[in-house]
Every structure is written in structure tokens, then in C-alpha cells.
């Protein structure tokens, strides 16, 4: 029997907004976490047996600030229990393949019949229609088709894999959150809910809007490592230091570039900034200079400058950087160091209120707070 967490206090700009999250993995839970971080009362509907990538639920940060109930959608009364929640919710998020929610009896039609104001958010990789809509996939395939993956990496090496940040979370979760909040604004103004189709391929493509403009204008070559922002430019990239660490350089503007060269004792290379024929020489000279000192030594050199240079830190090192520590960019909750909620608000501050919720831990409290008594059909089964 799990221990229920106390209801999270109203906190943040979305306090009072109710969200139902049908449990899944990846971008759906992250989107729901962001809404929960912003103060929404997010109830995650977990299935018996769980659904994860093998992460211990006690460490799954994407389930912080939420509450959880257990519902078997394949049981006789499972769909009706979810519909009871949907009737009282402002937003519902699901990440099934197209048509699955409908077959389970909790699709948009079923939910809107009970709650016409509901914003129904759908998170998929390929979208709700199109030739690939029914195909399985993961982040790497979605960003591959959009051209995004092909932009990343050295020209003579395979494309570099940016974890699952660009597709799942940037192109998926963040677009879903923008979509459901925009639809919530419309619903509150008109009384009419709607379906938000958030496809990772759409979002990942949209992220590259500026690049497509540069491509059309002739200012971007359609190949890796040949452009201003993809590592092709010698003053926008990474360089190895004497101790095998790296420094990141982003000295794009002339004044930053000149300050960068001055601190590197390479002032004579100032004319190479706009001369592409000298970029190879510039890269070699800069690389050789960086190899002459350690990362800590170069960090000290650039401290307090506008040269736009920073050490490349690891995940464990980042929380200890003086700037991030001063801002509280990372926080510790329940012994887990994790990114603090973002962005920040002057009047409705956010916080990590509770740690990762355990499946089914809050059935009794949610049944009471949301006035959904049918959630409690079998206390032992539901985790209370």
C-alpha cells in the first residue's frame, strides 16, 4: 500500500486549472510536469503495472508536482472513471497512437460529450493523420525526417544525436503546452473546447523557421558544418583544452569577436572574421591556443569578459556553477538535484512542491477534491 501525498497547495499562475494526464512516456509527462510546475492541479491516470522506460518512479522528475490515481482503462468501468475526471477538468493530455483513445472510450468525442469546454491535448510523433500516423517512432526518427537531425554534427561524421531534447521536449512538449494554454484561453472566452494536435514533426520543423529563411535567402548551405551556427564558423563552436575538457565559443558579433581574439592573444586574426578563405587558418590557431591551457585556466581568462566563451560542463557540474547557483537554476528536493521550474513570475512564484508521485498514491484525495467518488472502487487495487 503506497503512502498518499498531501494535496499540493495552489501556487503559480495556473493555480485552479485542472489537468488530467493519461499516463505515457516522454513528451506527454514532461508537458504535464510543466503545467504542474506552473501551479495546475495535474492528476496523472496511471495504469496498473505502470508504463515507463525502466526508471524508478521515485526518481522520475517528470512526475513531480502531480497527483496520481490508478485506473485500468480496459476494465468495464475504467473509461467512465476517466470521463468523470474529464468532466471536471480544464485540460486533458494523452499520448496514444491515433484512434486508441477513441477505442478505449476516452477520445475527444466521449470527453466533449461530458465537458464541452475541455481542451483535449494530443501528443504524438507523427500527428493525427498522414501516411506515418499509425507508425511507431521515437525522437530520433521524428527529427530525422524534418531535416533537423541532418543539420547537427561535423560534416565528415554521422549526424550528432542531441539526446531527446529537440524532438520530444522542444518540438513536442513545449508546443503541446503552448497549444493547450492557447486553447484554454479560447475556451474560457467562448465556452468551447477543442482538440490540440501536437505532433513532434510539426514542432521540430517549426523550430527551424529561421534556418529555412536563411536557406531561402542563400545564407545557409544545406549541409552540416558549413554555416554560422552549426559548427562551420570557427568562432561559434567548441574547442578541446589541455586537460581534455572543452570550451564553447559564441563570439559572433564583431566587438565580441575582437575581445575573444584579444584574450586569446590572436589579435592579428581580426580580419579573418568575414574572410571565409581564412576560416581554416583561424580554426587551427584557435584550437592550438585552447590546447595550451586547461579548462579552468581558460575559464579564468574569460571571466568577466564579453567574449561569449563558457566552459562545457557536465550534468553533475552544472548545478555548482556560480551563476546557476546564485539564480537557483537547480534545486534539491527529496535528495534529487533537478532543474527548478521555469520561467519565473513576479506575482505567482513557482516551486517544486512535491517529489515524483508514485502510481495511485492520491486516489482518495483526488476523489474527494474533484468530487469523483467512483475513483475509489477498490482501495487496495488503487494504491491507497
How are the secondary structure elements laid out?
Elements (H helix, E strand, L loop, with lengths): L17 E5 L4 H11 L3 E6 L19 E5 L7 H10 L3 E4 L5 H5 L3 H7 L4 E6 L14 H7 L19 H26 L3 E6 H8 L1 H8 L19 E5 L5 E5 L3 H10 L15 H12 L4 H8 L6 E3 L10 H6 L2 E4 L2 E4 L23 H7 L9 H4 L2
Parallel strand pairs: 1-2, 1-4, 2-3, 4-5, 5-6
Antiparallel strand pairs: 7-8, 8-9, 10-11
Helix pairs in contact: 1-6, 2-4, 5-6, 5-7, 6-7
Structure report:
It contains 14 helices and eleven strands. It starts with 17 loop residues before the first strand and ends with a helix. It is elongated and about 75 Å long. Helix content is 34%, strand content 14%. It is α/β, with parallel strands linked by helices and 384 residues long. β10 and β11 form a beta hairpin. A six-stranded parallel sheet has the order 3-2-1-4-5-6, with helices on both faces. A three-stranded antiparallel sheet has the order 7-8-9, covered by helices on one side. The longest helix is centred in the middle third of the chain and has 26 residues, at 165-190.
Amino acid at each position: 500500500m503506497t503512502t498518499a501525498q498531501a494535496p499540493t497547495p495552489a501556487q503559480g499562475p495556473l493555480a485552479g486549472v485542472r489537468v488530467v494526464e493519461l499516463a505515457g512516456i516522454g513528451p506527454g509527462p514532461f508537458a504535464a510536469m510543466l503545467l504542474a510546475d506552473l501551479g495546475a492541479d495535474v492528476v496523472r491516470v496511471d495504469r496498473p503495472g505502470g508504463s515507463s522506460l525502466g526508471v524508478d518512479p521515485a526518481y522520475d522528475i517528470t512526475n513531480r508536482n502531480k497527483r496520481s490515481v490508478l485506473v485500468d482503462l480496459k476494465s468495464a468501468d475504467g473509461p467512465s472513471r476517466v470521463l468523470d475526471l474529464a468532466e471536471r477538468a480544464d485540460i486533458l493530455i494523452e499520448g496514444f497512437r491515433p484512434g486508441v483513445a477513441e477505442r478505449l472510450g476516452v477520445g475527444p468525442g466521449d470527453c466533449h460529450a461530458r465537458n464541452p469546454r475541455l481542451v483535449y491535448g494530443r501528443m504524438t510523433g507523427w500527428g493525427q493523420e498522414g501516411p506515418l500516423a499509425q507508425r511507431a517512432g521515437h525522437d530520433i526518427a521524428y527529427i530525422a525526417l524534418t531535416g533537423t537531425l541532418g543539420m547537427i554534427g561535423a560534416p565528415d561524421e554521422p549526424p550528432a544525436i542531441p539526446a531527446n531534447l529537440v524532438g520530444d521536449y522542444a518540438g513536442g512538449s513545449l508546443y503541446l503546452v503552448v497549444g493547450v494554454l492557447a486553447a484554454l484561453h479560447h475556451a474560457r472566452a467562448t465556452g468551447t473546447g477543442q482538440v490540440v494536435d501536437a505532433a513532434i514533426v510539426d514542432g521540430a520543423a517549426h523550430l527551424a523557421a529561421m534556418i529555412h529563411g536563411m536557406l531561402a535567402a542563400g545564407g545557409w548551405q544545406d549541409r552540416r558544418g558549413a554555416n554560422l551556427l552549426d559548427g562551420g564558423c570557427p568562432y561559434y563552436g567548441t574547442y578541446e583544452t589541455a586537460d581534455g575538457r572543452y570550451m564553447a565559443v559564441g563570439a559572433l558579433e564583431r566587438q565580441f569577436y575582437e575581445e575573444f581574439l584579444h584574450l586569446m592573444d590572436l589579435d592579428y586574426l581580426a580580419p579573418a572574421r568575414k574572410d571565409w578563405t581564412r576560416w581554416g587558418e583561424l580554426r587551427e590557431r584557435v584550437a592550438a591556443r585552447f590546447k595550451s591551457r586547461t579548462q579552468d585556466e581558460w575559464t579564468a581568462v574569460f571571466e568577466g569578459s564579453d567574449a561569449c566563451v563558457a566552459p562545457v560542463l557536465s550534468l553533475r557540474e552544472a548545478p555548482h556553477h556560480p551563476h546557476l547557483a546564485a539564480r537557483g537554476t537547480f534545486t534539491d528536493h527529496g535528495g534529487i538535484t533537478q532543474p527548478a521550474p521555469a520561467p519565473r513570475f513576479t506575482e505567482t512564484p513557482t516551486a517544486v512542491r512535491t517529489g515524483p508521485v508514485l502510481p495511485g498514491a492520491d486516489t482518495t484525495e483526488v476523489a474527494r477534491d474533484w468530487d469523483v467518488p467512483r475513483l475509489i472502487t477498490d482501495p487496495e487495487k488503487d494504491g491507497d
